[in-house]
Specification:
Pfam families: Sarcoglycan_1. It is a single-pass type II membrane protein. The protein is an alpha+beta fold and 288 residues long. The protein is built from two helices and eleven strands; from the N terminus they run ααβββββββββββ.
Length: 288
Amino acid sequence: MPQEQYAHRSTMQTSEGPQVYKVGIYGWRKRCLYFFVLLLMILILVNLAMTIWILKVMNFTIDGMGNLRITEKGLKLEGDSEFLKPLYAKEIRSRPGNALYFQSARNVTVNILNEKTKVLTRLVTGPQAVEAHSQKFEVKTLSGKLLFSADDNEVVVGAERLRVLGAEGTVFPKSIETPNVRADPFKELRLESPTRALVMEAPKGIEINAEAGSLKATCRTELRLESKDGEITLNSAKIKLPNLPQGSSSSAGSRQKIYELCVCPNGRLFLSLAGASSTCQINTSVCL
C-alpha cells in the first residue's frame, strides 16, 4: 500500500473513534431461543402435571400402589385383582372374616409339582365338570374323620349313613357288601333285579324286618328258600297260599272246606281235602 493512502486511512480512523463489535445471539436467533426455552418449560410443567395425575389415579403411596400394599407379612391386595400370567406364591389367603374367590372365563387349574416340575396332583374346575387327578382322593371332617376316599383299588364311604336321592334308585352292576340296608322313615325299601337274579348271602344269617309295613317278594320263575344245615320257620298267625293247585276229592259228595297241605318230592305244594288220615298219597298225580 502506498504511504500516502496508509496515512490517510489512519487519520480517518483516529477522527471517527474506535469501532464496537457485538458478541452473542441477537435478532431473530434470540427470539427463536426464547421461544424454545418457553416451549421446554411448558413441556416440563405438563409432564410434571401428568406425573402427579398418574400418581393420584394409581394411588401410589409409600406402602404400595393401587390395591397392592406391601406389609411385613407379604403383599396385600384389596378389591378385585387380575393376573395375566402365572402367579407363584407360597400362601394365598383372604382377610379374616371374608371369603376368597377365584374367577376365570374358562378353567381354574391348581397344580402340585415336585422338584422336577412334574405334576403330582391337579385340580381343574371348568364349565362342564370338576376334575381331580391324583393317586388318592379323600374328604375329611374338621376333626379328621374320613368321609370319602377313592383310589385305584377301592372307594370308601366313611359316613354313618349313605343317602341316595335319585328317583330311579341306585344301580350296582356287581356285588355290594354292607351290614345294613334300610330306607328312610316312612319310605319303602325295594331291592330289584330287572333281568337277572337277586342273591343275598351271609355267613351267619340274613334278617329282613318290616316293622311298620308288609314284606313282598316277587319273581318271574322261582322263589327258593333254602337252608342247608338248619330249618325254615314261618311264624305267623296266618299263612296263606291262595294259588296252590287242589287235588281230587277223596270221598264223593263231601262238602267239607278243610284242606291238607301236601309237599311233592320235587318241592311242589298242593292242597288236598282232609280226611281221617292223610290224603296226600291219593293225589300224587298233581306232582307229575
